[in-house]
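Lay summary. Proteins are chains of building blocks that fold into shapes, and those shapes determine what they do. In this project we predict the shape from the chain. Here is one chain we studied, written as its sequence of building blocks.
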Amino acid sequence: MLVFLDESFRTHRRTRQVFGVLSGVGIPEDQFRGFQRDFYELRRPYHGKVLGPDDEVKGKELLGSATFRVLDARGYSYQWNLAHELLQYASRQKLRVFGVVCFRPGLHTFVCGDETRLDRTFRDLFDRIDLFMKRSFPGRFAKIVFDSRDHRTNEANSRAITNFFTRSTVGTGYDSILRVPFFAVSQGHNYGLQLADLVTTVIALRWQGERRITPLWRIVHRMLDEQLVGALRVSSLRVMRSRPPAQERGNPAALLPMAGANPPSTESPR
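And here is the predicted shape, written in a compact code that computers can read:
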């Protein structure tokens, strides 16, 4: 399975708290060719209205403030409709969303400062991907594809991730994930990363406090995976609230999504 990941960095509208989202979508490799074809066919009617034939789909453009102003004024937006169609398609294909929403200072930038020690955000994300792969695709590998950032960030994260997978006891246990991450750009026709960007934007807007994103959040919510680990129900979307790390030490519930990570579709964003 190919797991495409993107980042978004936001400030909560009410609390002014800075947070980051690292999330994306898993696409089984045997579905990927069809996915590429279908994604293009879904966006083609919007060429010339929303984007050009070779332009990339970007969540911040489809779901920016201008889109919400048009929706409020007219009740209709080509940008919103394209985002809705793409997410509905992904949900029908039963693609799975994985991610981390992090409010903790020092971790929410998703840059590993120590190549010998993988940040908790990445560990929690990989834990969820590994759980899903072992249940749904036993004996197969997830290949992690990150949206490329700057060279220094890519290098730091790549070193930390590879060291974690190959040199740590915990990392070697994640034997369903290819131990070398990939980095790619979303420009052009990399539709896997473009879908990851759209999904990440929806999640970021939901935790930013944008109530009008709720219809799209409900679609993304259906794409989350949940598994029972012992007596605990673990969501594929992890929310790390801002609280002292010491509160998590020795607490097995730390693997659970925090309050609000996997709410009913009727819950309003906080």
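What the prediction tells us: Residues 245-270 have pLDDT under 50 and may be disordered.
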